[in-house]
């Protein structure tokens, strides 16, 4: 257990006198914690106006805790004002499961702050009558109170809370140029670098690539495509190999399909690749 500093000229100067002035009415650990918070606000220039949410007619600024400040052990409500009258604070402490939740608000600006403390971490309930033993972990308690209750309302001063230095990246990315548009999507094929429609068919991934990736533009598929096999001929007859023609619209233009017969099976005229029939020179045949 950490023993507190003596009040004579030390960091907790004034707390011992305040504590002894209200010691007869301190009956629980949260009373002692409220006494510490009150003292810390006093050291930062605040004065207590009274208890409750609404001001009374005969209230005055005081360094002492007002009468009835700990009448309710579950809900503490105190009002404070800076010595120069520039700011008011409404302080509420609510007990819940061994912890006290402090809610602080500036009624003028509606700015709020809060802090939750586990009472047993900072007050020894076995030594409420002994100021030298009642408080523990005082350095941490002071940091919590100043950081979360006092500093949020001191806009003109540097915050007392320690701040972590931002981590620096080893290889930070260069800043974007002034004309950079984050919504701009670059074209798939920049000008001057258009890729050929037909990659090398001897590539290691050419075989079956068309079937696996129909949008990749690679050759080597197992589906017969009359538009891409052999000589380029956009006018493919869908009825090739059939005894009669298909009705219009049976095959959409440009569709890939397995033909019913070899391409150009119904073309007219002799084919020089065919062998002539027997007795071809007989004019009476």
UniProtKB/TrEMBL annotation:
Region entry Disordered, spans: 157-285
* Family annotation (Gene3D superfamilies): 3.40.1000.30
Its localization reads:
Cytoplasm; Endoplasmic reticulum
The UniProt record lists the PI31 proteasome regulator N-terminal domain at 24-153
Q: Where is the composition biased (Basic and acidic residues)?
A: 157-171
Give an example GO biological process.
proteasome-mediated ubiquitin-dependent protein catabolic process
- Keywords in UniProt for this one? Acetylation, Cytoplasm, Endoplasmic reticulum, Methylation, Phosphoprotein, Proteasome
GO CC, alphabetical: endoplasmic reticulum; proteasome complex
The terms under GO molecular function for this entry are:
endopeptidase inhibitor activity; proteasome binding
- Where this protein primarily resides, as one coarse class? cytoplasm
By sequence similarity, the record places it as follows: Belongs to the proteasome inhibitor PI31 family.
Question: What does the UniProt function comment say about this protein?
Answer: Plays an important role in control of proteasome function. Inhibits the hydrolysis of protein and peptide substrates by the 20S proteasome. Also inhibits the activation of the proteasome by the proteasome regulatory proteins PA700 and PA28.
Protein name (record): Proteasome inhibitor PI31 subunit
Species assigned in the record: Phrynocephalus forsythii
């Amino acid at each position: 257990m950490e023993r507190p500093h003596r009040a004579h000229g030390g960091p907790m100067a004034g707390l011992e006198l305040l504590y002894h002035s209200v010691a007869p009415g301190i009956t629980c650990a949260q009373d002692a914690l409220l006494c510490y918070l009150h003292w810390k606000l006093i050291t930062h220039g605040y004065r207590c106006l009274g208890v409750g949410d609404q001001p009374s007619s005969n209230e005055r600024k005081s360094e002492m805790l007002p009468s009835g400040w700990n009448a309710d052990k579950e809900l503490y409500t105190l009002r404070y004002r800076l010595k120069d009258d520039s700011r008011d604070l409404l302080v509420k402490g609510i007990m819940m499961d061994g912890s006290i939740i402090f809610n602080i608000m500036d009624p003028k600006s509606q700015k709020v702050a809060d802090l939750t403390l586990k009472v047993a971490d900072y007050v020894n309930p076995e030594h409420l009558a002994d100021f030298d033993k009642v408080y523990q972990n005082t350095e941490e308690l002071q940091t919590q109170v100043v950081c979360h209750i006092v500093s949020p309302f001191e806009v003109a001063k540097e915050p007392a809370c320690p701040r972590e230095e931002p981590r620096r990246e080893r290889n930070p990315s260069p800043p974007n140029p002034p004309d950079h548009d984050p919504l701009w999507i670059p074209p798939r094929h920049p000008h001057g670098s258009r890729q050929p429609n037909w990659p090398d068919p001897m590539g290691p991934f050419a075989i079956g690539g068309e079937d696996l990736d129909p949008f990749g533009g690679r050759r080597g598929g197992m589906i017969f495509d009359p538009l891409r096999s052999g000589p380029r001929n956009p006018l493919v007859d869908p009825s090739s190999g059939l005894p009669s023609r298909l009705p219009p619209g049976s095959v959409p233009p440009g569709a890939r399909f397995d033909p019913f017969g070899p391409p150009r099976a119904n073309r007219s005229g002799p084919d020089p690749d065919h062998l002539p029939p027997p007795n071809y020179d007989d004019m009476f045949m």
